[in-house]
């Protein structure tokens, strides 16, 4: 069976990194996108669809429509790895886009199999798109085991530094972390500060208005890992996070984490305690209380030990993807 995997693998975004890991670990002979220009990509999609036995599109893109239509015409089975829900997330982020909504819904209509990047996201998709429920499945994203082996794991962390990723995106709910840190500065540690990385968004001005916020904007992967290596605790407070690799990357650097219940990556960790999870992402009192607990009693060693590296590796995830694609081919 020959696979054609299409999707961005170079931009450094979460979906692009997932595509990159699959390219590295899928069977020898797997075809993938190499061209950058629109015309060259279109030609490459048509040629590789003819050459492949099954096609997979990873991440939202207008090119998916062309590719999936070609697959239908050539009677080639298809799958779509769905990293997030553009329609729902744009609404949360106060950036609705009807054109993107139509592209996403057409992609779901055309593909034979939708693969969510976590079990919880798959279940959510079945409720949000009941008309496609019978073709929605999931493969929880994997772990870069090389990253784990190469991480530095400092012991001399900045004890006043709290880190969060997501910039001003409302979906990340960093504004409520700000409220929690403000409470902690008044009752626990007046030197606490919040380092925020990520692009500008609708909440950016409100976040930057706090004088204890160090707003870094977009940073390189290497700089992000350095910050994981320094922070006293990493907080992911998203109201909707289909997977979210950042908490796992933080743990790889030995950084304690606190995540909202909505973070899909928690599926990789079995030994989750109540104090590791934010139940109400909009409650600064709960967030403050749990930040204090984790700063005083690091959960990094316990949670890292529970990640089951080999069974959660990208090699294992690629085998799971290959198995699902093989079943698609047999059904055709």
Q: What low-confidence regions span 5 or more consecutive residues with pLDDT below 50?
A: none
Provide the structure class: alpha/beta
Shape by Cα distribution: elongated
Order of SSEs? EHEHEHEHHEHEHEHEHEHEHEEHHH
Strand order of the largest sheet: 2-1-3-4-5-6
Q: Please provide the count of β strands.
A: 12
Bin the helical content: 40-55%
* Alpha carbon gyration radius: 21 Å
Distance between the termini: 13 Å
What portion of residues belong to β-strands? 15-25%
Q: Describe the biggest sheet?
A: 6 strands, parallel
Mean pLDDT over all positions: 94
Number of helices: 14
Oligomer: single chain
What this model shows, in words?
It is a single chain. The chain is elongated. It has 14 helices and twelve strands. With 332 residues, it is of the alpha/beta class.
Write a brief structural summary.
It is built from 14 helices and twelve strands.
Topology:
Layout: E1 3-6, H1 14-25, E2 31-32, H2 38-51, E3 54-58, H3 63-73, E4 78-82, H4 86-92, H5 98-110, E5 113-116, H6 119-128, E6 136-138, H7 145-150, E7 158-165, H8 174-187, E8 193-197, H9 204-208, E9 213-217, H10 221-230, E10 231-236, H11 246-252, E11 257-260, E12 277-278, H12 284-296, H13 300-305, H14 314-331
Parallel strand pairs: 1-2, 1-3, 3-4, 4-5, 5-6, 7-8, 7-10, 8-9, 10-11, 11-12
Helix pairs in contact: 2-3, 3-5, 8-12
């Amino acid at each position: 069976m020959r696979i054609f995997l299409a999707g961005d693998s170079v931009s450094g975004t979460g979906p692009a990194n997932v595509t990159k890991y699959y390219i590295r670990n899928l069977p020898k002979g797997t075809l993938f996108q190499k061209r950058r220009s629109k015309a060259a990509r279109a030609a490459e999609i048509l040629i590789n669809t003819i050459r492949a036995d099954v096609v997979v599109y990873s991440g939202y893109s207008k090119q998916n429509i062309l590719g999936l239509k070609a697959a239908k015409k050539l009677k080639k089975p298809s799958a779509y790895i769905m990293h997030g829900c553009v329609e729902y997330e744009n609404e949360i982020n106060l950036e609705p886009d009807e054109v993107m909504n139509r592209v996403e819904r057409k992609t779901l209509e055309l593909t034979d199999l939708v693969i969510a990047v976590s079990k919880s996201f798959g279940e959510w998709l079945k409720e949000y798109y009941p008309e496609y429920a019978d073709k929605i499945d999931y493969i929880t994203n994997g772990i870069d085991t090389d990253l784990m082996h190469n991480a530095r794991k400092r012991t001399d962390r900045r004890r006043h530094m709290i880190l969060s990723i997501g910039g001003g995106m409302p979906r990340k709910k960093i504004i409520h972390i700000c409220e929690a840190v403000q409470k902690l500065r008044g009752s626990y540690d007046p030197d606490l500060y919040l380092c925020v990385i990520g692009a500008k968004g609708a909440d950016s001005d409100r976040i930057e208005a706090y004088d204890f916020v160090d707003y870094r904007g977009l940073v390189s992967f290497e700089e992000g890992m350095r910050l994981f290596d320094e922070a006293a605790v990493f907080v992911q407070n998203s109201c909707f996070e289909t997977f979210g690799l950042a908490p796992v990357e933080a743990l790889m650097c030995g950084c304690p984490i606190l995540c909202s219940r909505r973070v899909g990556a928690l599926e990789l960790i079995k030994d989750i305690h109540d104090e590791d999870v934010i139940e109400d992402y909009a409650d600064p009192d709960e967030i403050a209380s749990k930040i204090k607990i984790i700063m005083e009693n690091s959960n990094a060693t316990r949670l890292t030990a529970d990640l089951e590296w080999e069974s959660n590796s990208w090699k294992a995830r690629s085998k799971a993807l290959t198995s699902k694609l093989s079943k698609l081919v047999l059904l055709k």
